[in-house]
Amino acid sequence: MHSAWIMLIVAGLLEVGWAIGLKASEGFTRPLPSVLTIAAMAGSFFLLARAMQVLPVGTAYGIWVGIGALGTVLLGILIFGESASPARLVSVLLLLAGLVGLKLSA
Q1: Distance (Å, rounded) from C-alpha 83 to C-alpha 10?
Q2: What's the CA gap between 99 and 92, in Å, rounded?
Q3: How many Cα atoms occupy the beta-carbon half-sphere of 39 within 13 Å?
Q4: Distance CA 43, CA 23 (A)
Q5: What is the rounded CA–CA span in Å between residue 30 and residue 33?
Q6: What is the dihedral of CA 52, 43, 25, 32, to 10 degrees?
Q7: How far apart are CA 100 and CA 51, in angstroms?
Q8: What is the predicted pLDDT for the residue at 1?
């Protein structure tokens, strides 16, 4: 079970990578970012599927999406200068609380 959680966390981090990569690839018009984005997608889906062999589907998918959303919002703020409004930051904290709740209830 422990390795399933590790695979799920890595899958979520790869989801962040491919989400950021989609922007960097500029609609798959830039070769290197495009290839890296597709590789991150494949790795993310593969590890998610492996984690789902052990973990409940709702928990695994929710945490995978949550890590991806949380990481992408934070990197959007840091890398792309997206809004860091108080409402957005509170929403990020609520998302984090939801992830912790899913993990504790699994």
Answers
A1: 26
A2: 11
A3: 6
A4: 18
A5: 6
A6: 180
A7: 17
A8: 64
Q: How far is it, in rounded angstroms, from Cα 19 to Cα 100?
A: 22
- Name the nearest CA neighbour of 21 among 38, 43, 46, 4: 38
Q: Are 39 and 21 in contact (CB under 8 A)?
A: no
Residue type, 43: G
Which residue has tokens 């890296």? 36
The answer to whether the CB of 12 falls within 8 A of the CB of 61 is: no
Contact 15, 68 (CB under 8 A): yes
Residue pair 83/89 in contact by the 8 Å Cβ criterion: no
**Cα separation, 68 vs 15, whole angstroms:** 5
Residues of the chain with pLDDT under 50: none
